[in-house]
Amino acid sequence: MDLPTLWFFIVGFFFVGYFVLDGFDFGVGMSLPFLGKDDTDRRVLINTIGPVWDLNETWVIVAGAALFAAFPEWYATLFSGFYLALLLILLALIVRGVSFEYRHQGSSSRWKAWFDGMIVVGSAVPALLWGVAFANIVQGVPLDAGHNYTGTLFDLLNPYGLLGGLTTLLLFFTHGVVFVALKTEGELRERARKLAVRAGVLTIVVAAVFLVWTNLAFGGVASWILAALAAVVLIASVLSTVRGADRLAFGLTAATIGLAVLSLFMALFPNVMPASNDPANSLTIANASSTPYTLTVMSWVALCAIPLVLVYQGWTYWVFRKRVTRAHITAAEAAH
Fold first, then answer.
1. Which of the chain's termini has less CB crowding within 10 Å, N or C?
2. Residue 279, CA distances (Å) to 75, 139, 145 in order
3. Bigger pLDDT: 265 or 108?
4. How far is CA 242 from CA 30, 122, 191, 239, 249, in A?
5. Is-above-0.90 flag for pTM?
6. DSSP characters over 146-162
């Protein structure tokens, strides 16, 4: 495997990490109207991701930086052509982050309801638009001879792109609700399990349609295998939730996201940005990558840095492994 191909899959690894980790953040945020019967429930939900959401979000920065350094042509075409969609994602992430920090600053129900709504929107918009973006990358977009995107934001909102967005929206929602079941106790945990099963069944149907469409149109043997594995693992996750095996169910939804993203990358390979209007304008791993020297230096840095990042991430989750309960919230209120 040459260095450009290696870095294609390293970039894929970073996006897998981002979608797995920030994906359940998005799901928890979107679950507020469904699981938060009162303010205490909503505080429990927010506190399940409170210590880790900002750390999870840094994975997209790492993924973007790796993309910029390893494939500058791909980065330039993607971020200039999709800038409106990416700007909407950025604004939604900002709104969500601000809402986490400012929700508790006011005591009125109207104040909290306003920020709760922004958390929901700030979680749903990225969950939808990331799927739209990646679906369009796989499908191909119109590019000129200089590899510039010649379409508009509305061209990205085509049936295949919207189906990709709906798939990630539902997958992240299910992933997040399973995480709530893993991190809470009592009635809230039971409601999360029931919602995870209902959402999981719907996700299986929508994701199956999207992955079959993807592989019939753009896939090969490897992407078909990965897509089939993703489907089997997602079904196993729903069955695990029915049995009450929350830890296993969460691991399986994480594996589902990883396999689905890898399936998309294999369907894309060896392109990085196909041109739908003229294949000669397509960006490939070969013509979009940095110089061998740059990729060599980056490989040594990644070899040293990635294990440290994984160890730190794992340590963080171990420190904050305890469940969050309504009793913790009421005790904190009494202390103040």
1. C
2. 19, 12, 10
3. 265
4. 21, 29, 12, 5, 9
5. yes
6. T--B-S-HHHH-SHHHH
